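(Protein data)
===
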Amino acid sequence: MSLAVAPVPPVVYRVVHEVPGRLRVRVPLVGADPAYRECLLWLLERVPGVVGLRLSAWAYCVVVEGGERQAVFACIEEAGREYGVGALLAEQPEEDWGERFGWPLLALGLGAVTMGLQVPVPAWVMVGVVLWAARPVFVSSWHALSHERKLNLDVLDALWTVIHALEGQYVPPALQLSIGEATGVVRDATARQTSRRHSVLMDLATMQVRVERGGQEQLLSLVAVCQGDVVVLTYGDRIPVDGTVVRGEGFVDNQNLSGEVRLQPCQPGSTVYASGLVVRGQLWVRAEKTGQDTRMGRALTLLKEAPQYDSRVSDYAEQVGEWTITPVLFLSGILFTLTGNWHQALALLQLDFGTGVKLASATAILTAVRQAAQYGLYIRSGRALEMLAQIQAVAFDKTGTLTQGRAQVFDVYLTDVDSNTFALLELATALSKGSVHPASLAIVEYGEDFGIEPAQVATVEVLPGKGMQANWEGEVVRVGSGRWVRGEGVDTEVVSQMHPELKAAGYSLVYVAKGERLLGVVALTNPLRPEAEPAVQALQDMGLTAYVLTGDLLPAAQITANRLGIPPERVYAEVLPDQKVAVVAELEAEGQRLAYVGEGINDAPALAYASVSIALKGGSSLAADTADVVLTQDDLRSLVYGIQIARETMGVIYQNLGLVVVPNLSIVLGGVFFALDPVLAVMINSGAILLAELNSLRPSLPVVPVLPTTTDKPRAGHTTILFA
């Protein structure tokens, strides 16, 4: 079964050239999607009779020598069906800038030549050019009337353009059309351009899998793996299926799925999940779920089915101006009936709050986006900036977002009077070196910082879920969990007696014992990011509610939240990716406009469902591709800057409404009572746009957010590190 996350449309392709024995096919996805390209190459190499093969990404073409043409076409389509890439990337039509700008500018130039230089140009030519340039206006008007059954601002523009053109006034409509096209281009530049590339999906989709069938190992593509197959996995392999270990022992890193720094010990009977990474040992896994039925597949399905919002910043101008359309048409008709003067009647049709506000809003958005980049934020769209200004709550992933995402030794606590810190670390580092467990790595790093030389021990025995042991000086040295060493006859109660503060602190403890004597414990922590505390404090001072969502255990999550001033009732612990989506949906349903901040693959579905999704640059590419906002400097304080910039920018946009309304009303009154020249009216309107644009540049001024300074005092967050 494939890992497709949605129904896949047919792959678009066409034959460019064909001669006997040689076929050239243009396939846009070949250039757009590396995963599709690799998949297609793999399929075509297995077509009987193919003697030559070349894929050109820049030319979007496939050249095949030999083989049946229908087999080639089948491979092109099969690659899209099996791997789902056709649903992720669509062929985008190129923007025809000549078509978009050429006709309005031509009409403006001819109008200026005709009216300014008195060069005779046939009237039918001028009328035709102006009306042809106004095609988008006519199309929009017709669509509004025939499909939406309502009037829009383009209806007024269409009437105004037609009547002026028929009366020989070519410059006003041409100038208005040129400004309108410029407005649309700038506004479109703020549209959200995101392609959710799903890097993990692609990695899994193109992988080769070793499967044991009939007592023999076979190398198959993932699509060929069926339920019940036994998949053979060794060190460094990514698990492609959900299933049960039937043979072998090892460790699996599930951080892609859970987001937590936690290794899972595996032995016969253990359940493993797709996207897990085998970091030690060899496993034989019986496939129970494949493709989109796996946990990771369901997470990606949730991501694909996430609600899609309009990517443009809300069109404030249309909200203000739509209610004026019917009254304006009605009054214009009455005025023409009473006066018989087209110029006075047309003056009312010039009431347009839209153009100025649209263009100035786009300028404000783009200015704010550029400024945000200087403060360490990449804001993907105008819609994201708008929503960022409106958020009422922020939900944080814990591990890797609020904390540094790795284990760190906080301190060593001795329990044996005959031992010392250096002797304990010599033994602990001796057993830990060579291990990939987060706790072992932290102990080795801590020992290196102190210049510790690991003791020379015999072969280290790793006991999954317990720890490690080795013989040294005739005694067994154990480094691992308290439950394990206690079961080996070591008294662990001495820790709580000598160091009662450890229980309240919530550290993860690694016990070091020699024989039946407990030498001491190594306290591990997952330290907070240095900027996490001031950033969360600043957000709460701005009136935002902070939440913590994590796959970690509740005690560790609550300790971290307490350090940050987040109350326990706002902590959601032990939640998987799909459960994070449910929590986000629940908070949104309560009326809170929520921003979600995360960095892992497991955060991607929740990121997609939040009103605003925020990812850290140092996290997974899937999270970054999903997010509306990316913190490019991996600094949570950048989010505070971003919210301040967004709020100021939205305030500027609302101010622009007033800056555009007053001149527009002046134009209408001047045209009705004083026969204001149409060209002058357009110039006044353009002046109002310029004024609004200058106002829109204000977000580029320095913004100095009030942020508490980070403290030099070490503050530790916590994570549950299972010694495995």
Observations:
- The first helix runs from residue 28 to 32.
- Residues 14-87 form a domain with the Alpha-Beta Plaits fold (CATH 3.30.70.100).
